[in-house]
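Hi all, long-time lurker, first post. I run a small reading group and we've been trying to get comfortable going from sequence to structure in the token notation. Rather than ask abstract questions, I figured I'd post a concrete chain and ask someone more experienced to write out its structure so we can walk through it together at our next meeting. Sequence below, copied exactly:
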Amino acid sequence: MPVITGQQYIDRIDALQSYIYIDGKVVTGKVSEHPAFKGVMQSQARLFDLQNENELLEKMTYVSPTSNKRVGMSYLQVMTVEDLVKRRNAAREWALSTHGLMGRSPDYMNTTLMALASAADFLKDKPNCFPNHLLNFYEYARENDLTMTHTFIEPQVNRNRFYFEDEEETIAAKIVDNTSEGLVIKGARLLATQGGITDELLVLSTNGYDEGKGFGFSIPSNTKGLKFLCRQSFVGGESVFDHPLSSRFEEMDAIVVFDNVVVPWERVFYYGNVEVANSFMNVSGFQTYGLHQVLSRQIAKTEFVLGVVQSIVNTISIGDYQHVQQKVVDIIVTLETMKALLLKSEIEAKKDAFGFIRPDHPTLLAAIQIFPKVYPTFTDIIQLLGASGLMSIPSEKAFTADDGDLEHYLQSSQGGGEERVKKFRLAWDLTMSSFGTRQTLYERFFFGDPVRLATVLYKTYNSEDLVNRVDSFLKNNH
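-- Answer (accepted) --
Happy to help. Here is the structure in token form:
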């Protein structure tokens, strides 16, 4: 099967009938028609349709080495720097379609799987490791244009570093049996964004000490015993006037429960090997390739934020104030810095131990230090510039019944009240609604704890030559 269409995606997810629990009820019927999932599934469907547009075919797809059919560019393994550029251009096209507001667009997980498959040799000849299973699944996902979500972390029961879970009361998912059919998994994991509306669930556990909690596998979302327990939906309503963003891009987050789920052996990548579980994600280049895709999305999102901010400035004519100019420039500097770092990561790309080209890791680690810190300030800037305008936002129904008062008294220097309110409702949905505040939290921790990421950069950045340069200067200082 070549790249699928949006309708094929929707039909496939509807047919799964996965166990999705939200607001005290299990979703029945077509999940694509449920108010919590309808908008985001339609937005995701448009991404698949983009792959099939003739003018974007070369940008969004490539010819599969096995089937000779067109497959998604986000599955492309990187043999040259030009391949990195191709991947970046495709990621940007999808990010522009969602304005960077969907962190789990399919290319993120496709990139994750590509990174793991590119390092499958690491699993060779290691106990309880199955590199062929990983490669087979990568090819299957690529050839069928699958969508995936993932769960990488355990529930927040006790963050004490010396906490050990009671063996009699399973909370974090672990292996409870090993049968001829496969591994049996029981317990819960966090935090599957788009849980229940993807074909597959990819599970990678890196528990540092427990063999029973170290595993890697992927299973269909409708696997028996697999449950997606959803948070409250942040879709404000179907009106794109009232809720221009949440009605389209609200990605559900879910707790994943494994109720004695059997993972078939052909879907197990590794298990019961603490060393592999703790190192494979880093060895694989998951972080490096993933950050390359993430940065492409965050650049598109920053551009969207800049557009929203400048629209507010233009609408109420505050562009002559220097403090306003400074706030806009802060966003511009962030945008141009991130664009430069993305290009630098490609310019300084190197061949890895498995023969593939990876973007420069330290550069991308530096880039991911920026966005989680500055994105909350974007929210502040919009609130400071929008001020009372972010509260003077009547609904679509109010304008429909308006006798002229709203149109007159809420006008701006650029137009009538309805057009002004549309812009301010957009800014409100981006920064002040449930959807908007979730976006801020999401970006704070998108790629993990920022402090931990800083530690990784500190420990891996090569500053030895710089220290030697200082020592040399001091020794020759006559």
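A couple of things your group might point at:
The longest strand covers residues 182-193.
The radius of gyration is 24 Å.
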